[in-house]
Design goal:
The protein has seven helices and no strands. By secondary structure, the chain is mainly alpha-helical.
Protein backbone atom coordinates (compact mmCIF):
# COMPACT_ATOMS: atom_id res chain seq x y z
CA UNK A 1 0.00 0.00 0.00
CA UNK A 2 1.37 3.41 -0.91
CA UNK A 3 2.15 6.03 1.71
CA UNK A 4 -0.62 8.30 0.38
CA UNK A 5 -3.19 5.52 0.83
CA UNK A 6 -1.93 4.85 4.37
CA UNK A 7 -2.24 8.55 5.21
CA UNK A 8 -5.76 8.65 3.72
CA UNK A 9 -6.82 5.61 5.77
CA UNK A 10 -5.30 7.14 8.90
CA UNK A 11 -7.07 10.48 8.35
CA UNK A 12 -10.36 8.67 7.74
CA UNK A 13 -9.89 6.65 10.93
CA UNK A 14 -9.23 9.79 12.98
CA UNK A 15 -12.25 11.52 11.44
CA UNK A 16 -14.53 8.58 12.22
CA UNK A 17 -13.20 8.29 15.76
CA UNK A 18 -14.05 11.95 16.35
CA UNK A 19 -17.67 11.24 15.33
CA UNK A 20 -18.20 8.77 18.17
CA UNK A 21 -20.14 9.77 21.27
CA UNK A 22 -19.43 8.11 24.59
CA UNK A 23 -22.20 6.86 26.87
CA UNK A 24 -24.92 6.13 24.34
CA UNK A 25 -25.25 2.54 25.52
CA UNK A 26 -25.79 3.53 29.14
CA UNK A 27 -29.39 2.75 30.03
CA UNK A 28 -29.72 5.68 32.45
CA UNK A 29 -28.74 8.10 29.70
CA UNK A 30 -31.40 6.89 27.28
CA UNK A 31 -34.49 8.23 29.01
CA UNK A 32 -36.05 9.42 32.21
CA UNK A 33 -39.41 7.88 31.31
CA UNK A 34 -40.90 5.18 33.54
CA UNK A 35 -40.60 1.60 32.27
CA UNK A 36 -43.27 0.32 34.65
CA UNK A 37 -45.80 2.89 33.41
CA UNK A 38 -44.89 1.92 29.86
CA UNK A 39 -45.27 -1.83 30.49
CA UNK A 40 -48.60 -1.56 32.33
CA UNK A 41 -50.25 1.32 30.47
CA UNK A 42 -48.57 2.34 27.22
CA UNK A 43 -47.74 -1.10 25.80
CA UNK A 44 -51.41 -2.25 25.90
CA UNK A 45 -52.50 0.90 24.03
CA UNK A 46 -49.77 0.56 21.40
CA UNK A 47 -50.49 -3.16 20.97
CA UNK A 48 -54.23 -2.64 20.52
CA UNK A 49 -54.22 0.55 18.48
CA UNK A 50 -50.90 0.85 16.63
CA UNK A 51 -49.03 -2.44 16.17
CA UNK A 52 -50.89 -3.92 13.20
CA UNK A 53 -48.66 -5.29 10.43
CA UNK A 54 -49.86 -2.60 8.00
CA UNK A 55 -49.07 0.10 10.55
CA UNK A 56 -46.30 -0.01 13.15
CA UNK A 57 -46.11 -3.78 13.54
CA UNK A 58 -43.37 -4.13 10.96
CA UNK A 59 -39.77 -3.08 10.45
CA UNK A 60 -40.52 -0.60 7.67
CA UNK A 61 -41.83 2.21 9.88
CA UNK A 62 -39.78 4.59 12.03
CA UNK A 63 -41.95 3.56 15.01
CA UNK A 64 -41.65 -0.24 15.00
CA UNK A 65 -43.58 -2.18 17.65
CA UNK A 66 -43.70 -5.77 18.84
CA UNK A 67 -47.01 -7.21 20.07
CA UNK A 68 -48.55 -10.57 20.87
CA UNK A 69 -49.97 -12.32 17.78
CA UNK A 70 -48.25 -9.74 15.60
CA UNK A 71 -44.69 -8.70 14.75
CA UNK A 72 -42.24 -10.50 17.04
CA UNK A 73 -38.51 -10.63 17.61
CA UNK A 74 -37.03 -14.09 17.08
CA UNK A 75 -40.23 -15.91 18.11
CA UNK A 76 -41.31 -18.91 16.02
CA UNK A 77 -44.55 -18.29 14.12
CA UNK A 78 -46.43 -20.91 16.14
CA UNK A 79 -45.59 -19.08 19.41
CA UNK A 80 -46.74 -15.59 18.42
CA UNK A 81 -49.51 -15.66 21.05
CA UNK A 82 -47.00 -15.91 23.92
CA UNK A 83 -46.39 -12.82 26.07
CA UNK A 84 -43.73 -10.41 24.88
CA UNK A 85 -40.21 -11.19 26.01
CA UNK A 86 -38.31 -8.75 28.22
CA UNK A 87 -36.19 -7.94 25.16
CA UNK A 88 -39.28 -7.08 23.09
CA UNK A 89 -40.75 -4.92 25.86
CA UNK A 90 -37.48 -3.07 26.28
CA UNK A 91 -37.24 -2.53 22.52
CA UNK A 92 -40.79 -1.11 22.48
CA UNK A 93 -40.03 1.11 25.49
CA UNK A 94 -36.91 2.50 23.84
CA UNK A 95 -38.67 2.93 20.49
CA UNK A 96 -41.65 4.75 22.03
CA UNK A 97 -39.35 6.87 24.21
CA UNK A 98 -37.64 8.12 21.07
CA UNK A 99 -40.94 9.61 19.92
CA UNK A 100 -41.60 11.52 23.14
CA UNK A 101 -39.17 14.39 22.54
CA UNK A 102 -40.74 17.81 22.21
CA UNK A 103 -39.43 20.88 20.45
CA UNK A 104 -41.76 23.42 22.03
CA UNK A 105 -42.82 21.65 25.21
CA UNK A 106 -46.31 20.95 23.89
CA UNK A 107 -46.39 18.37 21.12
CA UNK A 108 -45.05 14.86 21.46
CA UNK A 109 -44.99 12.66 18.36
CA UNK A 110 -45.99 9.53 20.27
CA UNK A 111 -49.39 10.98 21.26
CA UNK A 112 -49.99 13.90 18.92
CA UNK A 113 -49.15 12.25 15.60
CA UNK A 114 -52.04 9.73 15.85
CA UNK A 115 -54.38 12.45 17.20
CA UNK A 116 -56.80 13.61 14.50
CA UNK A 117 -55.50 16.80 12.88
CA UNK A 118 -59.00 18.30 13.05
CA UNK A 119 -58.61 18.50 16.83
CA UNK A 120 -54.99 19.67 16.92
CA UNK A 121 -53.05 16.51 16.09
CA UNK A 122 -50.19 16.20 13.64
CA UNK A 123 -50.21 14.71 10.16
CA UNK A 124 -50.40 10.92 10.38
CA UNK A 125 -50.18 8.82 7.22
CA UNK A 126 -52.43 6.18 8.80
CA UNK A 127 -55.43 8.47 8.37
CA UNK A 128 -54.85 8.65 4.63
CA UNK A 129 -54.17 4.95 4.28
CA UNK A 130 -56.97 3.50 6.37
CA UNK A 131 -59.91 5.88 6.36
CA UNK A 132 -61.14 9.30 7.24
CA UNK A 133 -60.48 9.09 10.97
CA UNK A 134 -57.23 8.84 12.87
CA UNK A 135 -56.31 6.63 15.84
CA UNK A 136 -57.41 9.17 18.45
CA UNK A 137 -60.42 11.29 17.48
CA UNK A 138 -60.11 13.67 20.43
CA UNK A 139 -57.92 14.47 23.43
CA UNK A 140 -60.37 12.70 25.74
CA UNK A 141 -59.58 9.29 24.24
CA UNK A 142 -58.17 7.10 27.00
CA UNK A 143 -55.39 5.87 24.69
CA UNK A 144 -54.33 9.42 23.88
CA UNK A 145 -54.34 10.32 27.59
CA UNK A 146 -52.14 7.32 28.44
CA UNK A 147 -49.55 8.30 25.82
CA UNK A 148 -49.59 11.95 26.95
CA UNK A 149 -49.24 10.93 30.60
CA UNK A 150 -46.23 8.78 29.66
CA UNK A 151 -44.65 11.71 27.81
CA UNK A 152 -45.36 13.94 30.82
CA UNK A 153 -43.45 11.59 33.12
CA UNK A 154 -46.19 9.48 34.71
CA UNK A 155 -44.91 6.59 36.79
CA UNK A 156 -46.28 3.30 38.11
CA UNK A 157 -45.13 0.87 40.78
CA UNK A 158 -43.20 -2.22 39.78
CA UNK A 159 -46.21 -4.42 40.60
CA UNK A 160 -48.68 -2.36 38.53
CA UNK A 161 -51.60 -4.12 36.86
CA UNK A 162 -51.64 -4.19 33.06
CA UNK A 163 -54.27 -1.81 31.67
CA UNK A 164 -57.27 -3.42 30.01
CA UNK A 165 -59.09 -0.26 28.87
CA UNK A 166 -57.25 1.11 25.84
CA UNK A 167 -60.05 3.05 24.13
CA UNK A 168 -62.41 2.29 21.25
Amino acid sequence: MSISKLIAVGVLGIALANCAQDGLAKREDLTLLDENYFRCNVQPVLAARCSFMACHGNDERPLMLFAEQRFRLSIPWDEYETPLTDEELLANFRMASGFVGRDDGEETLLADKPLDARVGGLFHRGRDLFGEDDVFLDRGDVGYQVLRDFADGASAPEDCAVREEVGP
